[in-house]
Every structure is written in C-alpha cells, then in structure tokens.
Predict the structure.
Amino acid sequence: MDVVTVGDVMIDVRVDADGLEEGGDVHGRVLVRPGGSAANVAVWAAESGASARVHGRVGSDVAGALLRDELIARGVEPALAMDPTADTGTMLVVHEPRERSMVADRGAGGRLSPTTCPIGSRRARSSSPVTPSCSNRPPRRAARLWIGPARSSWPWMRRRGR
C-alpha cells in the first residue's frame, strides 16, 4: 500500500447562495459530496496512481454505505469501522459572497479510536506513508498508532511530489 490515511470520512453538503436571509428563504445551489480530510487525501493519492487505503469510522446508515461505495469507485480501499449507534459525519459549508461558514458534525468519525479503527497488519503500519487527519481526541490516538512506525515513509511522499 502506497498511501494510508486515518481520520475523517464524511458527507460534505455545500451551499452556494448570493446571500442568506436570517429567518428567510433564498435560492441557491446545494451539492452533496463525499468528503472528510482522510478520504480526500486517499482519493487524491489514488487519482495520482498510488494505491491508497483510508481508515475511518462511519455510521451504519445510507451515508456510510454511499461513502464506502464512492471510495471503492475512486480506487481507494475503505477500511471503515461501522458504528451502529452514530450517524455518519456531515460537514455543512455555506458560501456567500466573500464569506464561508462551516458546521461540522463528526458523528461516528468522532468515535474513531485505537480500539475501533481497523488498523490492519503490523507490516502495513511499518511500510506505508500515513496522513493523520484527525483533529481531536479520540481519533488522534488512532492516528498516532501509525505515525511512529511510518515516519520513514515521509520521504517517499516528498519524492512523489504529492
């Protein structure tokens, strides 16, 4: 495996509008896309020709199934823990002229931990570059399992120019 990422796998909801009206309705464009920093990095790596795997946590809901299918379609191996009690994370991004606001619901991704992350083999941990994209605890602890053994792989990523 060339690139392994650990962290957020979520749905992005992007809203583009000329302006929001407090307490009112406006017309705009709404896009729903796969997202999450770990998923995005893995997809970019796969699109550049690298083999890629993403480790994360999603809900056992439609959004989680959609994300798994999209990762596979984009050439990424999904190593996703399924959370039966939490929804898949969602990021709402609202774009207005010269403004951007974001609301994050990390959902199941916020429960990613060393005990729930399907980490894989010790050999993979020691030979794969890692992109930890977990911004807080407990997901950060899961990413740390990979960082130490994988530090020797960082030069590989610099050589690839990615």
The first strand starts at residue 3 and ends at 7. The helical segments are 37-47, 62-73, 122-127, 139-150, 154-160. The chain has one domain: 3-160.
